[in-house]
C-alpha cells in the first residue's frame, strides 16, 4: 500500500493545492461586482506565489514581499488594499479546508513609508558603493548609482528599458511613474559610463530576470548582501528600552538621501520636488532631513546678516 492510500485509510486529506489552483477556484465562485478588476488584483498575487503549494507559503514569505513593497515606496493604503485581496483568498482557502488558518490576519502594516527617516553618512555611502561594485550581480552598482543621483524609485528604475535611454542627451524617460505622469531623468557622466558597459540595442529591460527577461530581476538578495558587507543594518537597531536607536536602511532611503543632499546644497524646494517627481511640495518636505550642522549654519548666517 502506497503513501497516499495510507493517508486516505487513516482519514487524512492530502492538501496539495497550489496558490494558483486556489485562486482559480476562488474566482470561479466570485459572485460580486467588478469581476475583471478582482481578477487583475488576484493575478498580482498569482505572479508572486502562483506555483507554490498553498500550505508551504508561510508568514515570512508574505512579510518579505510586503517589506519589498514598502522598500519600493508603495503607499501604505496601496499595500493594505493588496493585502485585503490576499486575505480574502486565504479566507476562502480556509473555508474549503485547504489551509488551517488565515495567516494574513496576523500581518500588521504600519505607516513605515511615511516616517522612515534614514540617510546614509558619508562613510556609509562609500562602503555601500564599494560593496555594490564587488557584488556577485554585476549591475547592482549601476542600479544603486542611478538611485543615488536621480532619486528615482526602485520600481521605476527596474522597469527602465534600453529604448528609454538617450545616450546622446544622457537622459532616461520614465513613462509610468507613481504619480501617473512621465518624468525625465538626467544622468551624470559616471552613470552613462556604467550604462555603456552593458548597452544593448532594442527595447529589453535594463535589469531583466535571466529566467523571465520580460520581468525585472528580484534584487533583494543582492541588495541585502551588499548592506551586510557595508555594515549597514537592514533592521532597526534598538535601545535597551525598546526605542529605535538607528533606523534600518532600505532601498527607498536612497530617495530620501537624494532629496536631503539637494536641500543641503541650497536647492529650492520646488526644484527638488520636480526632480523627485513629487506633485506636492508637502510630500517633498517629508523627504528632506536637515542635519544639526546645516541648522546651526543657517542660524549663524542669520545672526551675521542682522549684524549681531
From TrEMBL:
Domain Core-binding (CB) span(s) in chain numbering: 17-94
Name by which UniProt lists this protein: Integrase
GO molecular function term, any single one: DNA binding
Domain Tyr recombinase, chain residue ranges per copy: 115-300
One Pfam family of this chain: Phage_integrase
Family stated for the protein in its record: Belongs to the 'phage' integrase family.
Organismal lineage: Bacteria, Pseudomonadati, Pseudomonadota, Gammaproteobacteria, Methylococcales
SUPFAM superfamilies given in the database record: DNA breaking-rejoining enzymes (SSF56349)
GO biological process, one term: DNA integration
Amino acid at each position: 500500500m502506497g503513501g497516499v492510500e495510507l493517508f486516505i485509510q487513516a482519514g487524512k486529506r492530502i492538501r496539495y493545492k497550489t496558490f494558483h489552483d486556489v485562486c482559480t477556484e476562488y474566482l470561479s465562485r466570485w459572485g460580486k461586482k467588478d469581476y475583471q478588476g478582482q481578477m487583475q488584483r488576484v493575478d498580482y498575487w498569482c505572479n508572486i506565489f502562483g506555483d507554490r503549494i498553498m500550505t508551504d507559503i508561510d508568514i515570512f514569505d508574505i512579510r518579505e514581499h510586503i517589506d519589498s513593497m514598502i522598500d519600493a515606496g508603495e503607499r501604505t493604503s496601496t499595500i493594505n488594499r493588496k493585502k485585503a485581496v490576499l486575505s480574502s483568498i486565504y479566507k476562502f482557502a480556509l473555508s474549503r479546508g485547504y489551509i488551517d488558518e488565515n495567516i494574513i490576519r496576523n500581518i500588521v502594516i504600519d505607516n513605515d513609508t511615511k516616517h522612515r527617516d534614514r540617510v546614509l553618512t558619508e562613510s556609509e555611502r562609500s562602503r555601500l558603493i564599494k560593496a555594490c561594485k564587488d557584488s556577485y550581480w554585476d549591475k547592482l552598482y549601476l542600479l544603486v548609482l542611478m538611485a543615488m543621483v536621480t532619486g528615482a524609485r526602485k520600481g521605476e528604475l527596474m522597469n527602465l528599458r534600453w529604448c528609454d535611454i538617450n545616450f546622446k542627451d544622457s537622459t532616461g524617460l520614465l513613462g509610468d511613474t507613481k504619480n501617473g505622469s512621465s518624468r525625465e531623468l538626467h544622468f551624470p557622466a559616471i552613470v552613462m559610463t556604467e550604462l555603456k558597459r552593458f548597452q544593448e540595442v532594442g527595447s529589453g529591460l535594463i535589469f531583466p530576470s535571466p529566467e523571465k527577461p520580460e520581468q525585472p530581476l528580484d534584487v533583494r538578495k543582492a541588495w541585502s548582501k551588499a548592506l551586510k558587507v557595508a555594515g549597514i543594518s537592514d533592521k532597526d537597531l534598538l535601545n535597551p528600552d525598546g526605542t529605535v536607536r538607528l533606523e534600518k536602511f532600505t532601498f527607498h532611503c536612497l530617495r530620501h538621501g537624494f532629496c536631503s543632499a539637494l536641500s543641503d546644497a541650497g536647492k529650492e524646494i520646488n526644484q527638488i520636488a520636480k526632480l523627485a517627481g513629487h506633485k506636492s511640495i508637502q510630500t517633498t518636505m517629508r523627504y528632506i532631513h536637515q542635519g544639526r550642522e546645516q541648522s546651526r549654519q543657517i542660524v549663524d548666517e542669520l545672526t551675521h546678516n542682522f549684524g549681531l
